[in-house]
Design a protein that fits this description.
The structure is a homodimer of 395-residue chains.
Chain A (H helix, E strand, L loop, with lengths): L3 H8 L3 H16 L5 E2 L11 H13 L2 H4 L9 H15 L8 E4 L2 H12 L5 E5 L5 H8 L3 E5 L10 H7 L4 E7 L11 H18 L4 E5 L22 E6 L12 E5 L6 H14 L7 H9 L7 H18 L2 E2 L7 E5 L5 H10 L2 E2 L1 E2 L8 E5 L4 H17 L3
Parallel strand pairs in A: 1-11, 3-4, 3-5, 5-6, 6-7
Antiparallel strand pairs in A: 2-8, 7-8, 9-10, 10-13, 12-13
Chain lengths: 395, 395
Amino acid sequence: MYNKKAYALGSKRSIIREIFEYSKVRAQEIGTDKVYDFSLGNPSVEPPKEVTETIKNLISTNNQTLLHGYTSAQGDLAVRTVISQNINSRFALNLTPNNIYMTCGAAASLSICLKAVMNEGEECIVFSPFFTEYRVFVENAGGKLVVSNPNFDTLQIDLEDFNSKITENTKAVIINSPNNPSGVVYSEEIILKVCSILEQKQAEFGHDIYLISDEPYRELVYGDVKVPYLMNYYKNTMVCYSYSKSLSLPGERIGYIAVNPDMNNSSEVYLAVCGAGRSLGYVCAPSLFQKVIEKCINAKVNIDAYKQNRDIIYNALTEYGFDCVKPDGAFYLFVKSPDGDAYSMYEKAKKHEILLVPCDDFGIKGYVRIAYCVDKKRIENSLDAFMKLAKDYSL
Amino acid sequence: MYNKKAYALGSKRSIIREIFEYSKVRAQEIGTDKVYDFSLGNPSVEPPKEVTETIKNLISTNNQTLLHGYTSAQGDLAVRTVISQNINSRFALNLTPNNIYMTCGAAASLSICLKAVMNEGEECIVFSPFFTEYRVFVENAGGKLVVSNPNFDTLQIDLEDFNSKITENTKAVIINSPNNPSGVVYSEEIILKVCSILEQKQAEFGHDIYLISDEPYRELVYGDVKVPYLMNYYKNTMVCYSYSKSLSLPGERIGYIAVNPDMNNSSEVYLAVCGAGRSLGYVCAPSLFQKVIEKCINAKVNIDAYKQNRDIIYNALTEYGFDCVKPDGAFYLFVKSPDGDAYSMYEKAKKHEILLVPCDDFGIKGYVRIAYCVDKKRIENSLDAFMKLAKDYSL
């Protein structure tokens, strides 16, 4: 028989996929502009002009055989140099190209990192709400996912709960800030305490616990909010980065893993990352986009558009009486279902042509996610429907 | 502790990497044109002009947010449609887009396929000489690699040996034709017999055995040699394809898995492929190059250049007295060390500035691999050195 676990993963009912299919059909029935689809985290803002210009230059002027040729498994030296310098200048660190491993995006970064550090039966702690694929990657690495609940008022980390979830088997902790699906940025105060707890537990158990910072949304923060760079707070840190959101290139699968040079056994862990990538079938990150990143390291998408969207939808929904934490980053709004049932809110919203994602799978019951990475008009046009939804709940 | 197995894989001495480093240093010492480096399987022929033109069009005329956006996990419907039609028209089959799963290249295709069909402790048979990474991917899927020895005169499959290696635990068989590292194309006669043995064994053991056709070199064959399309010979076949060699795009990581619609439980196996891809961290194949493949499905690299290289080097080396099977495909020549020792031949050749890969890790002792995907001049200039090497062996 084929592999039952792989089959179960491949055939699992996916609510997001169902919404995607429904949205297409419904748009044909009543028109795209009448369907308020907020289900997908696909960036709506164009990639920076530099990206397109760089691709144009690369294919016009370079040796095409070299341009599209294999790079070394850890990535082209030039792009790794530029990335390490960029990190050093922004966060006062001392990375070298040999601390950087280029990947096919954030999912690859995470699955490789986990495979590199975890052993059969060890535990990885995640903070709810969390990106559902964490469970898949942790289990693929032979590990067990342990969920730590948040402070339900702020959706920040609940330090007491976190402390109680760490055991002798804890090998890794994933922090995702700005957070998908809540948009919350964990404060420096919380990060300092999380790291202090981890230091204590490392000393108590006498082994390393790795902090994995999953941060594809780092550049998407609004106002003067700061996202602490975890290597500055905790030695045993690995950063999983992706350019999917920061350059609006999610389909191109380009990102990296940065291994803190000050980590214990840093070079061995880096080699374990190389080995894990090899065993999962990653030969190198896409070569054209490695060169694009090298040339566009300082390029930025227009995040003002996302900020405008956030302000409109957050202000409107709270005015209508919905309960949600104001997101400081990413492009998601995480809304509490007024009757505590995420699926019934999803169904009720659908009647007003609003498509939301019920989030029970994100490790916290009774919330829906609104991805506001859409055209501003869609948000403006949807507000009446949201008002009607609020009335359904007598808010 | 970090994962020891991943570390071992990442830190393993790689002879090809060592040669790569040595080659760079030596080129600086005596000049690039004096170093006859035949170690790397990096295509030397340019990608077809259509590829560059298509990229130029896509980035000039398309919506860039959509162009670089996520595709569905199995790949964009348009490219899967074009690929299935292309397979159907060439091999008289009836695939649909739902039999095609786009991947990040051949290594991804293989690791996903193996993860989709194998269970802990089951066996996968490979034919030596074989691409060394097969062992890594089989072991990552929890399987055990079993090596079947070739007929040593022809390097074709030894049917008796193959038959003896199949056990109740055999779940998969990988066929790589044209073969890396030998360049041998398995004949239709051999394929018919391999498939007939597999049918018998399936009946005997009462379970499916999957034939995995790893065929990145399918389009690189010389003269009127035909490479049998395995779905035409055996129902439980999955094809792992990559455009790395056929379009000279190895760094871009683009390929696919085709699951035979006539296979037992074909749609379940396809879903297992989707699930395996998900668990390994593959979100989708690079989106720009999915669209490139859609538009360039009939594009071809200039394989005449490879054929010329093959003829020059094969004719010269056999004239000098070396023993090798004439390769009908790929861009490798697999040469027997005159004293049976691959490493001493590698060292002796190095003294004449020839860089070859000793192939003991490819599952067959005493051979070296010459990758003739290089500039024709390098081959012509190297012939004197090969003649001297022959004299060292008193050939």
